[in-house]
Design brief:
- An 8-stranded mixed sheet has the order 4-1-9-10-13-14-15-16.
- It has one domain: Ribokinase (UDP-N-acetylmuramoyl-L-alanine:D-glutamate ligase).
- It has 387 residues and is of the alpha/beta class.
- 26% of the residues lie in helices and 22% in strands.
- The protein contains 10 helices and 16 strands.
- Helix 1 packs across helix 5.
């Protein structure tokens, strides 16, 4: 874990968070051809958003000595393990909603994150994010997170993913059978995709915590005990859907902890999700765009200052306060600022395993180190789950 309490970028009086989830190596295939290698893991996508919006946080992640990327928060290196490796296989054919088939395989698994890996409870955090992708977050680890964090955001993929013991193919299990269900009343927000929400009873779960369901180009829906809302999308040209939900959760959490309402925060989440699908692998956000977004968030917060006398009214957090549509329009305008042009990514991305072999990696995937043994060449190994 790395602490940055005195990082001058963050200023003073800002809420500090704790992000928990392993970094990964991702290999992306399209129609059985290697598309790209990238830094993966929800923690990496969320870090990109939180760093971009200057939200301070500590991070707990584990990797092996083979970890191939430079990151803003150094992970815990486990000498006897190897970095979690995923292969994501995409089909070029998409349905009417722009969704294509994806088969996700966990080829290697680093150590789980245990309660003892988290900070001592007396340190305290304003918010926490449980964002495992490979089964690394244990029930007892999440239980400690809710003890040391004032409010906790959870991605359901950290709770309900299971992996085949032979080839590592990912499948989903019911939330009630996951071993985490009893912790729902202590969770503030639970994020799920349209596929994942089928593995829980949303009418039951919404009575325990706020549920946000992402739905690709249709935006997202927010469900709580007394109501629900539909939050509009940001149209984009989808290049790679990997990490879109992670970036959404990063943007959503950043909005909430900076004082925005839930609807405004969900808009911010949709915004960063749309930016992510327009790039390959880990997104790269242009500095001018980030500054524009921070200005709009600050302006929106000031616009809603008149509602602060009712800030203790829980219902007010879910109301689309006057100016919501204008905030949406301002983010649409901000999105016109180019991040990493899609054409440039496509021109630089490898189109064959040989291209990757020669070190021609996409330039939009973060700061990578060249791998000596290319992960896509290794046979899929038996996944040994660790206790």
């Amino acid at each position: 874990m790395v602490r940055d309490q005195h990082d001058p970028r963050f200023g003073f009086g800002t809420r500090r968070g704790l992000v928990v989830g392993n970094y990964c190596h991702d290999v992306l295939f399209r129609d059985d051809v290697v598309l790209a290698e990238s830094l993966g893991g929800a923690a990496s996508f969320i870090s990109a958003v939180l760093d971009g919006l200057s939200v301070p946080y500590d991070l707990v992640a584990k990797v092996g000595p083979d970890f191939a990327y430079s990151t803003t928060r150094e992970p815990i290196v486990i000498p006897t393990s190897r970095t979690t490796l995923f292969r994501a296989h995409f089909d070029s054919e998409v349905d009417g909603d722009g969704h294509g088939d994806r088969i996700l395989k966990r080829v290697r698994f680093c150590d789980p994150i245990r309660p003892s890996d988290l900070p001592e409870s007396n340190s305290g955090f304003d918010f926490g994010m449980a964002v495992g992708v490979g089964g690394e977050i244990l029930p007892e680890t999440l239980e400690k997170m809710v003890e040391i964090c004032d409010e906790v955001f959870v991605d359901i993929q950290a709770l309900i993913r299971a992996f085949d013991g032979v080839d590592g193919t990912m499948k989903l299990v019911g939330l009630k059978e996951s071993g985490f269900f009893h912790l729902l009343p202590r969770i503030r927000f639970l994020k799920a995709s349209m596929e994942e929400v089928l593995f829980m009873d949303i009418e039951e779960v919404r009575k325990e915590c706020c549920v946000i369901v992402t739905n690709g180009k249709h935006g997202c829906n927010v469900f709580w005990n007394d109501g629900d809302l539909q939050i509009g999308p940001f149209p984009t040209n989808q290049v790679d859907p990997t990490g879109a939900g992670d970036s959404f959760l990063g943007g959503f959490a950043a909005g909430v902890v900076q004082g925005l309402s839930v609807p405004d925060s969900a808009l911010l989440g949709n915004f960063f999700g749309s930016l992510t699908v327009g790039q390959i692998g880990l997104p790269k956000f242009e500095l001018r765009l980030l500054q524009r977004v921070k200005d709009e968030v600050r302006r929106r917060k000031m616009q809603c200052i008149s509602c602060h006398e009712r800030k203790d009214d829980e219902m007010m957090k879910f109301v689309k306060v006057a100016g919501y549509d204008q905030f949406h329009a301002s983010l649409v305008a901000a999105k016109q600022i180019s991040t990493c042009p899609v054409q440039e990514c496509q021109r630089e991305m490898p189109t064959s395993p040989r291209a990757v072999e020669q070190g021609i990696l996409p330039q939009c995937t973060g700061q990578s180190k060249l791998l000596i043994n290319y992960v896509y060449e290794e046979p899929i190994q038996t996944v040994d789950s660790k206790p």
